[in-house]
UniProtKB/TrEMBL annotation:
Pfam families for this protein: ACOX (PF01756), ACOX_C_alpha1 (PF22924), Acyl-CoA_ox_N (PF14749)
Stated name of the protein: Acyl-coenzyme A oxidase
Co-factor requirement: FAD
InterPro entries found in the cross-reference section: ACOX_C_alpha1, Acyl-CoA_ox_N, Acyl-CoA_Oxase/DH_mid-dom_sf, Acyl-CoA_oxidase, Acyl-CoA_oxidase_C, AcylCo_DH-like_C, AcylCoA_DH/ox_N_sf, AcylCoA_DH/oxidase_NM_dom_sf
Domain Acyl-CoA oxidase C-terminal per the UniProt entry, residue ranges: 488-668
Compartment list: Peroxisome
One of the record's GO molecular function terms: FAD binding
GO biological process: fatty acid beta-oxidation using acyl-CoA oxidase; lipid homeostasis
Major site of localization recorded for this protein: other
Pathway: Lipid metabolism; peroxisomal fatty acid beta-oxidation
Start and end residues of each Acyl-coenzyme A oxidase N-terminal domain: 24-149
Keywords: FAD, Fatty acid metabolism, Flavoprotein, Lipid metabolism, Oxidoreductase, Peroxisome
GO cellular component: peroxisome
Length: 672
C-alpha cells in the first residue's frame, strides 16, 4: 500500500514497532473502508482534497480571535465546498453527498467545524427526505450547487428535546396563499442551529402549523432569511450568533426570531402533509413521525462518525505511547515505552476494538436503514419503530462510549494530551456535543426503552418478535443463565442481562400501577431502570453485531488478519464482560473463579495484541493532515513538533509583552 512518505526520519521506536507488526496492514485498511475499491476511491479523493495545500493554516486555528477563526473557516469552507462540488462528488456519485470519505477529508481543513457543515449535513438531507418531487426539483439542485446555503433550525431556546413543545408558529393565510412565521415568546427564539448565525441565507424551520383556526402540530418549512446579494437579514428576521461554546467555535451556531414573517404556501415541505390553497390540511403520511426523518438519518450516520473519531484519538495516543518513555522499571535499565505498561494497553486497545465494532455495526445499521426506506417507499411503515429504537440507542451509546474512550486517550498522553496541538481536546469537545445533539443520551435511551417494554409484553403473549429483539422470545422465561465460557456465551449472557433488566422494568411498572399509581407516574419512577435496560439491550446488539459481522467480513482474509481481527473482537467481548460483572453475577451463574479466569485471559490478550498496536492504528490510514496532531503524526517527531507549535503562539511574537510595562512593572515599583 502506498503510504504518504514522511518528510523526516521516523522516530526509531516507532520504526521498530512497524517491523514487529505481523499482519498485512493494507488488508485491514480495506476491511475498515468496506473493500479494496473503496480504499482506492478514498485515497483518490484525499489526494484531490489534500495535495494542494489549501487546507493549511499559517497560524493555528486556536490562536485566532473568534472573528478571525470564523472568517478563516469560511475561506476554507469555500475552497473545500468548491472541491466537493467540482471534483469529489464526481467520484462518489452525487447521491453519496454524505459519504464518510467527504466527512474525513473535511477534517483536514478544519480542526474545529466548518460553518457549512449543517448545509450538507442536515439542510440537504431534509430537502431530500421531506420535499415533494416538484419541491425537490426547485430546491435541491440549488442547494447541491451551493447557490443557496442552508441551516436546520428546529431547537428553540425553551425546547430541544420535546419537539411537540416548540412554540414558533406558521399560520396559513388563504387570501394571500402565504404562511406567517412568528416567534411569540422569548423561549420561541430558534437557538443552536449550526451555520445559521452568519453563514446561511436559507434554513429549514420547524414550526407549529395553524390553518383554518386549528393547530396540526410541528411541520417543516424552507425559509429564505437573507438577501442573496447583500446577505442582509430580510425585514421581519432577527438573526445572529449565540456566543462562545465548549467546541464548535467556528460553526456560527445561531439564533433566529420571526416577526410575522411571510413565506409562500409552496415553502411548506409537503411530502408527508400539505395545506391546500384554500387552507384545507391533508395528511398523506402513514406514520405520525415521518417529519422526524432527518434526525433518524443523522443518528444512523453518527455511529460511523464515532468510529472515525475514536480511530483518530487511538492513532494519536498509540503512536505517542510508542515514542514516549517514562519511569525506570528496574535500576539502570532503559525507561520502557509507555505502551509497554498493561495499564496503558488497557486504556488504548479497547479504543481500537471499539472503532472496529462501531464501523462494522454502522455498515449493518446503514443497510437496515436502507431496507426500511425501501419498505416505506412501498407504503409499509411497519419496520420504522424498530429502526427508531435501534438508531436511538446506538446513537446514544456510541457517542457516550466514544466520549469516554477519547478522554482515556487524552489521559494516556499525560500532560501533552492537554495541548490543543495534540488535537485530542478538539476531538473530545466535538464528540461531547454529539452526545447531546440529535437527541440527548437519556432521552433517546428512553425512546428505545418504550419499544423494549412493548416487545417484552409481546414476547410474554407468545408473539414472534423482530430480529433485534428476538432474544426476548428465547429468554423471556429464563431466570439465570448457565454461564458458558465461550465468546457466544458472553454474547448470550448480555442478551439475558438485557432481557432480565427489561423484565424487571415491566414488573416495576406493574407493581407501581397495582399499588395505585397511574401509568405515567409508574413509568417515570422506573426511568432510571429503563435507561439501564435500553443500554443493556444496545450492548447486546453491539456485541452480537460486531462478532457476527467480523466473522463474515474476514471469511476470505489471510490467516494473520483473521487472527488479529478475531483478537480485537474477543478483547471487546471480554472488556465489556469485565465492566459488567455485577450484571453477570445477577443474571447468570458466573462464579468468582470464572471471572478471575476471564480477567487473566483479558490480560494475556493485551500482551498478544501489543506487537501489533502501531500496525493496527496505521491500518486506519489517517493522513497527518487529517490527524492535525503534534503527538500522533506518522513519523513520531513528537518533541520537535511540540516545540514548533509552541513557537507559533502569538505570545512568542515579541520577547517582552506590553503588559509588563503597562501593569506588572508599575505593580513591582508600587506605582499602580
Ligand atoms: C452533520 C450533522 C450535525 C448535526 C448537528 C446537530 C443537529 C441537531 O441537533 S438538530 C435537532 C435534533 N433534535 C432532536 O434530536 C430532538 C430529540 N427529540 C426527539 O427526537 C423527539 O421529540 C422525541 C423522540 C424525544 C419524542 O418525540 P414525541 O413527538 O414527544 O414522541 P413520543 O410521544 O415520545 O413518542 C410517540 C411515538 O412516536 C415514536 N417516535 C418518536 N420519534 C420517532 C422517530 N424519529 N421515528 C419513528 N418513530 C418515532 C415513538 O417511538 C412513539 O411510538 P409509540 O407511541 O408507538 O410508542
Ligand atoms: C453543538 C450543538 C449543535 C447543535 N446544532 C443544532 C442544529 O443545527 N439545529 C437544531 O435544531 N438544534 C441543534 N442543537 C440542539 C440540540 O439538538 C439539543 O440541544 C438537543 O436535542 C438537546 O435538547 P435540549 O438542549 O433542549 O436539552 P434538554 O432536553 O433541556 O435536556 C436537559 C437535561 O434534561 C434531561 N431531559 C430532558 N427531557 C427528558 C425526559 N423526557 N426524560 C428524562 N430526562 C430528560 C436530559 O437528559 C438532559 O440531561 C445543537 C446542540 C449542540 C450542543
Amino acid at each position: 500500500m502506498k503510504i504518504n512518505k514522511p518528510k523526516h526520519d521516523v522516530n526509531p521506536d516507532l520504526a521498530k514497532e512497524r517491523l514487529k507488526c505481523n499482519f498485512n496492514i493494507e488488508e485491514v485498511t480495506n476491511i475498515i473502508d468496506g473493500g479494496k475499491d473503496k480504499t482506492v476511491q478514498r485515497k483518490k479523493i484525499e489526494d484531490i482534497a489534500l495535495n494542494n495545500g489549501a487546507s493549511l493554516d499559517e497560524v493555528p486555528e486556536e490562536c485566532l480571535s473568534i472573528k478571525e477563526r470564523y472568517e478563516n473557516a469560511v475561506r476554507k469552507s469555500c475552497v473545500y465546498g468548491n472541491l466537493v462540488r467540482n471534483e469529489m462528488l464526481e467520484i462518489t456519485g452525487i447521491e453519496n453527498f454524505e459519504s464518510p470519505v467527504l466527512r474525513r477529508t473535511a477534517d483536514a481543513f478544519f480542526k474545529d467545524i466548518s460553518p457549512f457543515m449543517l448545509h450538507l449535513g442536515m439542510f440537504v438531507p431534509t430537502l431530500i427526505g421531506q420535499c415533494t418531487p416538484e419541491q425537490t426539483a426547485e430546491w435541491l439542485p440549488k442547494a447541491l450547487d451551493m447557490q443557496i446555503i442552508g441551516a436546520y433550525a428546529q431547537t428553540e431556546l425553551g425546547h430541544g428535546t420535546f419537539i411537540r413543545g416548540l412554540e414558533t408558529t406558521a399560520t396559513y393565510n388563504p387570501e394571500k396563499e402565504e404562511f406567517v412565521l412568528h416567534s411569540p415568546t422569548i423561549t420561541s427564539y430558534k437557538w443552536w442551529a449550526g451555520g445559521l448565525g452568519k453563514t446561511a441565507n436559507h434554513c429549514v424551520v420547524m414550526a407549529q402549523l395553524y390553518t383554518q383556526g386549528k393547530c396540526h402540530g410541528t411541520h417543516l418549512f424552507i425559509v429564505k432569511i437573507r438577501d442573496l446579494d447583500t446577505h442582509m437579514p430580510l425585514p421581519g428576521i432577527t438573526v445572529g450568533e449565540i456566543g462562545p461554546r465548549m467546541g464548535f467555535s467556528s460553526a456560527d451556531n445561531g439564533f433566529l426570531r420571526f416577526d410575522h414573517f411571510r413565506i409562500p404556501r409552496e415553502n411548506m415541505l409537503m411530502k408527508h402533509a400539505k395545506v391546500e390553497k384554500d387552507g384545507v390540511y391533508v395528511k398523506s403520511a402513514k406514520h405520525g413521525k415521518l417529519t422526524y426523518g432527518t434526525m433518524v438519518f443523522i443518528r444512523v450516520t453518527l455511529v460511523s462518525e464515532m468510529s472515525f473519531n475514536i480511530s483518530k484519538a487511538a492513532t494519536i495516543a498509540i503512536r505517542y505511547s510508542a515514542v514516549r518513555r517514562q519511569t525506570e522499571l528496574r535500576p539502570n535499565e532503559p525507561e520502557p515505552q509507555i505502551l509497554d505498561y498493561p495499564t496503558q494497553q488497557h486504556k488504548l486497545f479497547i479504543c481500537i476494538a471499539t472503532a472496529h465494532a462501531f464501523q462494522l455495526t454502522s455498515c449493518w445499521l446503514w443497510n437496515t436503514f436502507q431496507a426500511v426506506l425501501a419498505d416505506m417507499k412501498k407504503g409499509n411503515v411497519d419496520t420504522l419503530p424498530e429502526l427508531h429504537a435501534l438508531s436511538s440507542c446506538l446513537k446514544a451509546v456510541s457517542t457516550s462510549d466514544a466520549l469516554s474512550h477519547i478522554e482515556q486517550c487524552r489521559f494516556a498522553c499525560g500532560g501533552h494530551g492537554y495541548m490543543l496541538s495534540s488535537n485530542l481536546p478538539f476531538i473530545y469537545s466535538f464528540v461531547a456535543a454529539t452526545r447531546t445533539y440529535e437527541g440527548d443520551y437519556t432521552v433517546l435511551l428512553l425512546q428505545t426503552a418504550r419499544f423494549l417494554v412493548k416487545a417484552s409484553e409481546q414476547a410474554e403473549a407468545g408473539k414472534k418478535l423482530t430480529q433485534t429483539v428476538s432474544y426476548l422470545n428465547r429468554t423471556a422465561n429464563a431466570d439465570r443463565l448457565n454461564w458458558d465460557n465461550t465468546h457466544e456465551g458472553i454474547i448470550k449472557s448480555f442478551q439475558v442481562i438485557a432481557a432480565g433488566k427489561i423484565g424487571q422494568c415491566v414488573k416495576s411498572i406493574r407493581d407501581r400501577t397495582a399499588s395505585g399509581m397511574d401509568y405515567e407516574d409508574a413509568w417515570l419512577m422506573t426511568t432510571v431502570q429503563l435507561v439501564g435496560a435500553a443500554e443493556a439491550h444496545c450492548r447486546a446488539v453491539l456485541l452480537n453485531t460486531y462478532w457476527s459481522e467480523m466473522r463474515k467480513i474476514t471469511e476470505a482474509s489471510s490467516a494473520d488478519v483473521k487472527k488479529v481481527m478475531h483478537q480485537l473482537a474477543v478483547l471487546y467481548l471480554m472488556y465489556w464482560a469485565l465492566e459488567k460483572t455485577g450484571d453477570l453475577l445477577k443474571y447468570s451463574s458466573v462464579s468468582k473463579k470464572d471471572l478471575d479466569e476471564l480477567q487473566r485471559r483479558y490480560e494475556e490478550l493485551l500482551a498478544e495484541l501489543r506487537p501489533n498496536a502501531v500496525g493496527l492504528v496505521d491500518a486506519f490510514d489517517l493522513r497527518d493532515e487529517i490527524l492535525h496532531s503534534s503527538l500522533g503524526s506518522y513519523d513520531g517527531r513528537v518533541y520537535e513538533r511540540l516545540i514548533e507549535e509552541a513557537h507559533k503562539s502569538p505570545l512568542n511574537d515579541e520577547p517582552v509583552n506590553q503588559s509588563f510595562h503597562k501593569y506588572t512593572k508599575p505593580l513591582m515599583l508600587g506605582k499602580l
